[in-house]
Amino acid sequence: MVEGSSPSLNNSVAPFDRIQLRNRRNRVANNFSSHAFLLDEVGIQLAERLKDVKRNFRTAVDLGCHDGRLTALFSGNNGIEHFLQCDLSESMLAKASGPYKLIVDEEWLPFAPESIDLVISALNLHWVNDLPGTLIQIQRALRPDGLLSAAIFGGNSLTELRQALIKAESEIEGGISPRIAPFIEIQDLGALLLRAGFNLPVIDTDTITVTYPDALKLMKEIKGMGESNILKQRQRNLKSRALLAATAKYYQKMFEDSNGRIPATFEILYFAGWKPHESQQKPLKPGTAQISLTEVLDPTN
Questions:
Q1: How many CB atoms neighbour CB 262 within 10 A?
Q2: Strand runs (DSSP E) across the chain, as ranges?
Q3: How many CA atoms does the CB half-sphere of 15 hold within 13 Å?
Q4: What does the DSSP 8-state code read for residue 285?
Q5: Order of strands across the sheet with 82-87?
Q6: Cα 200 to chain centroid, rounded
Q7: Residue 296's pLDDT band (boundaries 50, 70, 90)?
Q8: Tens digits of per-residue pLDDT, 8-64?
Q9: pLDDT for 108
């Protein structure tokens, strides 16, 4: 695999500070395993999905591998012989134990065209400024009939924290500012895959709800994951004691359960798409269906 060209990115409209993302992941790398429960669950789900695919993939890439904890789930499965771990954070990558490791910025992929059979990505692509561009680069790097299998945070993630922050900031600041990054909606993801040139896209969603004793514990967890706000337009006074106290108060007031704990919702979007190949099934042309809608629809409904 050698370096290839990358599409240009207009930095003037890039919402995320990816230098800050790398720095934060570097800082949390040593203790990341204490906050990796979501990544572990998503990795298991991605591995199970791959087992259902009756195809071998000789060369695979874990794009955004964090500390490399998913390697054991995939290595050796589906005929994988070479498993390349890639991450933006050098400190995260140093924790990975696999033999093939590479520091990679997901916005500038270094892979040669048609050099990879499988790309896996777990809870990483939500921080990419140009997601359509990254998907195009992945599709270009895959061999024909190659597969992208990934998971990303969906639009309903951390909805409770968003609502509590809006209440608190309106009270303390008299207005609201970007505090939590926007996540992609499921209805947009399929269109992005098709736009990037993938065939047979499949998308499904799962909701994971975790409870915490209070909002401060949740914020500490998010920080430990390396998932704190990296929006360039974020305000820098997030650690204001008054704002934190108000956020915790509203979170507890609005969402506290019967046990005195607060929930945090994480929506996970799982998606997959194939590099086009002549062997893949194709949609029927209009008018060639072998069954009439009248045979399917119940006239009594």
A1: 24
A2: 59-63, 82-87, 100-103, 116-122, 142-153, 199-212, 262-274
A3: 15
A4: P
A5: 100-103, 82-87, 59-63, 116-122, 142-153, 262-274, 199-212
A6: 20
A7: very low
A8: 344 447 888 999 999 999 999 999 999 999 999 999 999 999 999 989 999 999 999
A9: 95
- Residue located via tokens 């099934």: 281
Q: Write the pLDDT tens digit of every residue in 243-271.
A: 889 999 999 999 999 999 999 999 999 99
Is the predicted pLDDT of residue 7 greater than 60, yes or no?
no
CA dist 34 and 50 (Å) reads 26
Task: Specify the DSSP class assigned to residue 191.
Answer: H
DSSP labels, 121-186: EES-GGG-S-HHHHHHHHHHHEEEEEEEEEEEEBTTTTHHHHHHHHHHHHHHTSS----S---B-H
Amino acid 72: pLDDT = 87
Taking CA 248 as the corner, what is the angle to CA 240 and CA 173, rounded to the nearest 5 degrees?
45
Hey, what are 269's tokens? 């979007």
- How far the first Cα of the chain sits from its last, in Å, is 57
For the chain, the residue count is: 301
Report the CATH number of the 14-275 domain: 3.40.50.150
For residue 46, what are the β-bridge partners?
none
Predicted pLDDT at 178: 52
55/57 Cα distance (integer angstroms):
7
Q: Which residue has the higher pLDDT, 85 or 301?
A: 85
**122, 39 contact by CB (below 8 A):** yes
* DSSP letter (8 states) at residue 214: S
- Average pLDDT over the chain reads 86
